[in-house]
Specification:
This protein has 124 residues and is α+β, with helices and mostly antiparallel strands. It has one domain: OB fold (Dihydrolipoamide Acetyltransferase, E2P) (Beta Barrel). It is 20% helix and 34% strand. The protein contains two helices and six strands. A six-stranded mixed β-sheet has the order 5-3-2-1-4-6, with no helix packed on it. β2 and β3 form a beta hairpin. 15% of the residues are buried.
Length: 124
């Protein structure tokens, strides 16, 4: 892609497209080994992705509470659900984290249950 095409795309892109591109570039520069883009993950496979938490929701069910977070990497969104948890210190909107787990294939959205995770330092 030449410079004129890149400049044209930057000028005509929506704010969401620009933010998405910036986020993908930011994660690519982190040199995270073995991570994938969320949009490229196949259901039923083991995935490792890095993204920013966009929202955190607690589902206060009596028998099995769960904590749900939406992770976004600029290419797509994956819902991360920890069963039996009410809170996890450090998992808040705006936090960057890496998760590793199996992407479910039985729902209409991308979901990973009880993944391993690593919180990244808060940016200042």
């Amino acid at each position: 892609m030449n410079a004129i095409t890149r400049a044209y795309r930057s000028l005509t892109a929506t704010t969401a497209q620009l933010e998405s591109r910036e986020l993908r570039d930011q994660f690519a520069q982190m040199n995270e080994p073995a991570t994938q883009q969320i949009a490229q993950c196949e259901p039923g496979t083991q995935i490792e992705v890095v993204g920013t938490v966009r929202s955190v929701i607690f589902h206060p069910q009596i028998k099995t509470p769960s904590l749900e977070a939406e992770l976004y990497d600029g290419s797509g969104v994956v819902t991360v659900i920890w069963m039996g948890r009410r809170t996890i210190p450090g998992i808040v909107a705006g936090r960057t984290m890496r998760i590793c787990g199996r992407l479910t294939c039985n729902t209409d959205r991308r979901v990973v249950f009880n993944p391993r995770y690593e919180l990244r330092p808060l940016s200042r």
